[in-house]
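User: Please predict structures.

Assistant: First:
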Amino acid sequence: MERLIRIDVSATDPESAVRELAAVGIGRQWTSRRSGDRYSFRYTAVGDHELTVRRSRIHGLLRGVVVPGPDHVVQWTTAGSVVIDATDTRSELRHDEPVLAPSDQEYVFVGADHDHRSVHLARSFIRTVAAERWATLPEHLVLERTRAGGTGASSAWRDALGALSRALRDGVDSRAWVDAKRAAADAFLGMFPPRVDALPAELSNPRNARLRAAVEYLHAHVQEPIAVTELADVAGLSVRSVQESFARVFGVSPLTYLRELRLDRVRHDLLDADAQSDTVGEVAKRWGFAHLGRFSAAYVERFGEYPKQTIRR
């Protein structure tokens, strides 16, 4: 039998709202203040350990730090303003447009007179459903965060939300809830599919099994600072063996492989970018390039054109 998770906290003054959020462990460093004569706040969550449906409503201003957790989080607003300020991007949620929260890193949540909705889906639950849809998945599942699916995926998500709402009336131990959760997970993966990189064919050779573990780790953590010692730990090899394995199979060092992988990700995003609102610098920083001059030179060497030419296509 599934255990019901239910949170329902409210406040009529900023100080109480901050205390309530701290008490239920939702983020940290919360501050709040009035935006007019009337102040009210309410936060609700209902579901089970695999999926919860949540809502935050406030007449006032709210700011805090959301920390990484065990869930993938889809969020959107139906009223007011919510800004998500993460390390690599700052964006304002649009009404009724679901986006995937950067739940693998801390971000600052800034809301004003908002009605904010979210669905939390356990990473383990999503991986189980994804494994049924995709035969080969990396150990660390990375989802497409910057692009949602098309009209069909959005429609499936709206239908799933309705089914979740109806199923909750029967309880989280009902068949209706199990089916609604699965439909929501399928709709979620339709909007934010896993990034399944085509790994080099050489890695299918059994003798390269340990090297494959290191390469999969690079693909899953490509945005993060990575040291060769980390790859050695993941592969169960010495640092020297990792370096020799990359040289033997790919003809490059592990960090050169990582740089080329990051360049490929940058190109993917630049081809998808809006030249009116996105910049080369933002995309490059997203994938770990801090020095734009060196980045640009490496990009030209790999693709034969400047990144600004790519984004203008």
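Second:
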Amino acid sequence: MNRATPRLRALAALPFVLALAVHLLLFARWRDELPAELATHFSAGGEADGWTGPTAYVLVSTALLLGLAAGWTALVRRRYLWAAWATAGFAGGLLVQLLRANRVDAFEAVVFAPGMDLGVALAVAVVAGAAGWALTALVPEEPAREPFDGPGDGPRLPLAAGEAVGWSKDTGSRALTVLAALALTAAPVTLLVATWPGALLGLLGLVIGVPGLALARVRVTVDRHGLTVRSALVPRPRVRVPLDGVEGASVREIDAIADFGGWGYRVRAHRTGVVLRSGEALVVRRGSGREFAVTVPDAQTAAALLNALVERHGKV
């Protein structure tokens, strides 16, 4: 499996550390020129209409950059290192432009020029992204993934004629469970107390939380009907691949981000999957040529049984 190396993680975190250092140094240097309350929210015309105290501003901006750093450090892949640097450049550029806009006399209005300031931040992002792309040369190439070429590559279990056998295992994602539970908890509160624009966030929490909780834990079953993956909590959603639609099964190490772009039910070119973590996965080649993958422990046994059932069914 393609894991981020310590060097790659360090290079992904570096631009955010640099952005934070520059931002805090400028804040300290300009502190005497900044107002008691910093303008941090602006109208469409660029005029300030929201303010934050210096201490809160420093804490929030630091948390923002550190949060972005943590996310990119955990999820970065070699080919996306430039994007981590571009993100740090854009965020850092915006924060510096915000400080610059607040360096005004007591009788001047704080004005944020969206066109110019966003342009400066984008320019910094481009330069930072180019630096990140150049630094990619310091990270070893990721090994090429070996595709699953057919049922002959997969394991098999010996089955007697007419023998009834099945395999089933539950698997889940603690992170998805927590996120879905938080979304569902926050949704009714937001719907009750927020105004109409804010209530949209409550609706979004329901849209994310309900299917997220349903897919946070699934049951994977292999039996005479084929492969079935369904929610362990409710009858639906469910994915079924009948034996007639299976060409073969194998085991593969799946990287949730690199292979499927995230967690949950994922759809990519030529493949779909129920991906709850990175690691061992049962991969089924369907008759259409597409693949279906589900991350589950003991995938070797599931693949061996499924291949044996398909073979006995006369498809292999």
